[in-house]
TrEMBL record:
Residues 38-102 form the Cupin type-2 domain. SUPFAM superfamilies: RmlC-like cupins. It comes from Haloarcula saliterrae. This is Cupin domain-containing protein. The keyword Metal-binding applies. Transmembrane segments: none annotated. Pfam families: Cupin_2. Keywords: Metal-binding. InterPro entries: Cupin_2 (IPR013096), GPI/OXD (IPR051610), RmlC-like_jellyroll (IPR014710), RmlC_Cupin_sf (IPR011051). Gene3D superfamilies: Jelly Rolls (2.60.120.10).
Length: 125
């Protein structure tokens, strides 16, 4: 099969907000998490220095703050933020519910010269 589908509500919730979608989707190189954050919820501060995964957080509903190292990044619906593997990150939700899609993957050689570089293509449509 060339595709798989899953609804985050059908995936067991981890912690107070996260649904890990990579395994049910059969992902091999990318991590995908849906996070529905209740009011006043905070994730645990963490980094990905050991696994060298960079992350992109996309806020799909509400507003929230992402603490990256010692800096607060305010986010509104539609905002995305890239986070380096060694940076400490923490989602801090405000008074209203918010929802994120979190994407993680190993860093790659973006100049295309490395043996394990990914080909980046644009979809035109």
């Amino acid at each position: 099969m060339s595709y798989r589908t899953v609804n985050y509500e059908d995936v067991e919730q981890v912690s107070d907000a996260m649904h890990f979608l990579s395994e049910p989707l059969g992902c091999r190189q990318v991590g995908v998490t849906f996070s529905r954050c209740p009011p006043d919820w905070n994730s645990k501060p963490h980094d990905h220095a050991d696994d060298e995964h960079e992350e992109v957080y996309v806020l799909v509903q509400g507003s929230a703050e992402v603490r990256i190292d010692d800096e607060s990044v305010g986010m509104e619906t539609g905002d995305a933020v890239w986070i380096a593997p060694d940076a400490t990150r923490q989602i801090r939700n405000g008074e209203d519910e918010s929802a994120f899609v979190l994407i993680s993957a190993p860093e790659f050689d973006s100049d295309g010269t490395g043996a394990d570089a990914w080909m980046i293509n644009a979809f035109q449509g």
